[in-house]
Amino acid sequence: MPPDRPLIRPLIRPFTGLRPRSEDAAAVAAPPYDVLYSDEARLSAAGKPLSFLHISKAEIDLPPEIDHYAPEVYAKSADNLNRLIVAGVLLRDATPCYYAYRLTMGEHVQTGLVAAASVADYDGNRIRKHEFTRPDKEDDRVRQIEALNAQTGPVLLAHPDSAEAERLIAAATGTIPVADVTAADGIRHTIWQIGESQDIARIGAEFDAMPALYIADGHHRSAAASRVAAARRGKSAYDSAEYFLSVIFPARQMRIMDYNRVVRDLNGMGVGGFLAAIEQRYMATPAPGAVKPEKTGVCGMYLAGRWYRLAIRPELVPANDPVRRLDVSLLAEQILGPLLGITDLRRDKRIDFVGGIRGLAELEKRVDSGEMAVAFAMHPTQMTELMSVADAGEVMPPKSTWFEPKLADGLVSHVLDREPGSTAITGN
Predict the structure, then answer these.
(1) pTM here?
(2) How far apart, in whole angstroms, are the C-alpha atoms of residue 18 and residue 415?
(3) Could you say which of 89, 104, 281, 402 is the most buried, measured as most Cβ atoms within 10 Å of its Cβ?
């Protein structure tokens, strides 16, 4: 191959996963590192020495006043990971595998694939983004990966419709799982190993034929993986850093919940004046109870102890703009900015965001307490909308999506460099 010709890598590939013994999986599995504050993580991990929170949020094992980005935190994370490996709690698979991962939340079930995804395809936008990242959060994930020499937080990806991919992955779920955990929040996490060479080849070929994958959650983790790969390129005989840990679900199975907004004041307006101003942009109808928007173009508003159904005036919806057509964009352009003076959703302290998992009662509570003046209940962003934004190379507004159920940390990790003599697991 000529030296100036780029190396062609597959979109995904199997890897030798680092994972807990089946009997320890429930004790190891933990919520994602970024959904708990440190004090919550400290409480959650209390009396649980095997919890992956000791690795993903190692500040909980250090004095409370420590800077969460201090070098000691990353060193402690590496020490805690090594402790579980030495104790035989975490073991390495002997050969590269894929893994089927099923999430069950009540009646909702989604089944996907744990795989190593190509950094080159991320850099080339075949693995598509829809959010900006923050440098400080990227730096944190880079330091974590370098300290552990592993990626422990999976990137949540979506793939376009493929009945064959779904069939191949579902076939693995007829075997005995290597992990089957029901977390404290009631979500069940079940993982099966896919180790047969013909199954691996078929899955890889099916995914390689896909035009794109889409990042649902994990923009900072994927960006950090790209930076680590760039820094290591040409310096190691191993190329595992050219791939990042991912769990890929069919887009049609994924569940986005509403991501609601609460605002501290009415920007100097009275309730009557505010309603009159809204009427120029939305058709506002008083409602007898909480408004859970039934379709795109509709949102609920809780103001002064009363719910309203707001329907955007059709002429205000841009025809061919995948970002500005989003309900969260319309609210920002028609109400938050011009009426309430909130133009920077990332930094303005007058606005807060409430995940739909908390329910509409949480919006009422925040307003009735006097903490907030008004709340907006949003219709969930749809996966088709997210994919359209990503395909256009555009970026969604902050806090546009809230995915449920969420993945667990610790059930499968991706070690970057396979060291000779590493402990392997061949099945349990």
Answers:
(1) 0.89
(2) 7
(3) 402
